[in-house]
Amino acid sequence: MKSKLSKVFLGALLLGAYSINAQQNQGSTTTSVYNYHDAFAPGFYTKNASETRSASGQPGPKYWQNRADYNLTAVLNEAKNEISGSALITYTNNSPDKLGFVWMQLDQNLFKKDSRGNAIIPVKGSRNGAKGQDLDGGFTIKSVTIVSSSNGKSIEKEAKFTITDTRMQVDLPEELKANGASVKFKIDFTFISPVYGSDRMGVLDTKNGKVFTVAQWYPRMCVYDDVKGWNTLPYLGAGEFYLEYGDFDVAITAPANHIVVCSGELQNPAEVYTAEQQKRWEQAKQSDKTVMIRSAEEIGNTASRPAGKTALTWKFKIKNSRDASWASSAAFIIDAAKINLPSGKKSLAISAYPVESNGNDAWGRSTEYTKSSIENYSKRWFEYPYPAATNVAGNVGGMEYPGIVFCNWSDKNDNLWGVTDHEFGHIWFPMIVGSNERLFAWMDEGFNTFINSLSSQDFNKGEYKQGPKNMHRMSEVLTDPEMEPVFTAPDGLKEAHLGILGYEKPGSGLTMLREQVLGKERFDKAFRTYVARWAFKHPTPDDFFRTMENVSGEDLNWFWRSWFINNWKLDQAITKVKYVKNDPKSGAVISIENLQKMPMPVTVEVKTKSGSVTRTVLPVEIWERNTSWTFKYNSTEELDSITLDPDHALPDMNSDNNVWTNAKNGVEKTILYDAYLGDYSSKQVPFKIHITQEDDDLMVHAEGQGTAPFADKGNGKFALDAEGVSIQFNDQKTGFKLSMGSQNFDFTKG
């Protein structure tokens, strides 16, 4: 009999405890939509490690990537805006697969009237395409040959090729063998440059001549990788590029009155600059201050260009690069200064701009900005790998290429600093860390936006430093339910959303991860490790996520899910404040709740009546199995106010419920059950019952079993209604009667 009753009662307590826990997890209100199972569920990674990609986020022991080396020539016809050229490409197949064909990117074909990208450009409000220019655009491919040699002679054979929109497939006469075999292609081409080229290239008219900013100007190899094989998504305008690494030799023939700048290092300054300009060029290589190489006064002066020729060929080299771009103009002012790198190596900061952009409030400081940006990122993250860094003023809003960027000719002061710093930040993402921009814009634009925020704090003692962002205000935009998730290909985003989802949201996410989750030291170590591991390689999002987790030692699945994979909102709220036993000197009990789907650590700022202010940080793990959380704050006086996220560092959608004030909200009184507390025993059952108090709840605990809260029914009666169990204390509170249905048991204190 006793044994049976014991099991029934203990079972009731266990069920009661389970029921109450479930109620607590639902939160103190019915408005919470938070589900900790969704946020902290295991199984975030759906792919296991492979020989090419480690589970820790680093390249695997058999990681491979193919290579493309380019020997490029171009001739600029200024009158026609026409560029004619040839590309000799050596393609090396390091994959374990034989290749019967290769794919190339013909990005200029975006500007063909019948291109897919042209077809999906809206009538107004787009930065893509040629902005309505009546243009006979796109590549004219004159020939494609496969180059081999026999007895020391070069042999060219026509290759079969098929062009589909912005892609060209070239069939190989025999399969290209795996693990290091190579093939050479020679492609002759021409195209007319658009005046406005999808905000990535173009032609700017100035009073001293046209400024050509030239990009996507030659057939480029598509990437064949271990993730997808051939990456052949068409170029539609929004999604940027995914390219193989290699060495580039570039020769550009332009009118003799032009100056040409290009990715890499100029190989023949003696052939293209005057003797005086060569002296200035060498001086700039040794100077931390900007040196004028061709001044505004020299523009239009024939003595400022080598005499006796109508055209000059400029030769450049850049190694271990994924691309090469260039600019040409008779209108260029040229200045330069030395870049100091952490290893002791030097590079050269160069600026090229028309007189319309001149001035110390404008492009006269471009080289200073360029130098500072490159030096800063080299020190913080990874050393700049190229011999020069050139900033060009054109009609592009801002666009990046290895060793050269195009910024807008009209930018000044903080705008010019911002765009210069941003575009050169792209040297690290995606020029050094070669992610797939066509699929994952956030892995270059977002990461770059993040590092820009740190660089701007550092430049010239904070000249253009911006204050911390108010993430509460930004939450409405960053977590707009109409927005796609960050983890969306740029071609799948509404064009108006790209700035938020490609740049601002991922950039803000990394700032939160650094400052609110991991801390600066752990974050910086993990982020630097990611850059070093994947320098000149092709990481995926998983490689980034895994590296950050493995190096920092934190499981961040909940963060990736909330901010990158999904578009979850955050709303942390204060729900209740009490004093322990109603005595401010004994401390306070504070209850908070997570009302939306995103979990984050909680920063709690408490101000007391005397003006003392302290902060407490609660880890994100409080939300791992709870919707609400109650904690004790060890105060010794009355509280004046409590604020969650006082710095507005988190994207909390409702600032109002983050703040509690004594004057407005008041302190709730705690019901004291001291007279009922203690240990009770019965001659009828073989176990003791311990009664304690937690917050406002009378807690009943049977020896060796769970604890359940009993509701106060008044007049000394408490009940676990769901299980049909009640206890009625006597008037002296020295004992109680426990009732279960028709059965009653008497317990006495002691």
Provide an overview of this structure.
With 750 residues, the protein is of the alpha+beta class. Among the domains are: 99 residues, Lipocalin (Beta Barrel), CATH 2.40.128; 122 residues, Orthogonal Bundle (Neutral Protease, domain 2), CATH 1.10.390; 179 residues, Immunoglobulin-like; 97 residues, Immunoglobulin-like, CATH 2.60.40.10. The protein is 22% helix and 33% strand. It contains 15 helices and 40 strands. The strands form eight sheets. It has an eight-stranded mixed β-sheet with strand order 5-4-8-2-1-15-19-17. Helix 6 crosses helix 7. The longest helix is centred in the first third of the chain and has 24 residues. It is elongated. Keywords: Signal.
- The CATH topology of the domain at 66-244 corresponds to Immunoglobulin-like
Main beta sheet: 8 strands, mixed
Number of helices: 15
Give the percentage of residues in beta strands: 25-35%
Quickly name the level 1 CATH class of the domain at 66-244. Answer: Mainly Beta
CATH architecture of the domain at 66-244: Sandwich
- How far apart are the termini? 24 Å
Fraction of residues in helix: 10-25%
Secondary structure: number of strands: 40
Rg, rounded, reads: 34 Å
Strand order of the largest sheet: 5-4-8-2-1-15-19-17
- Low-confidence runs of at least 5 consecutive residues: 1-5, 17-29
The pLDDT mean sits at 94
> What structural class is derived from the secondary structure elements?
alpha+beta
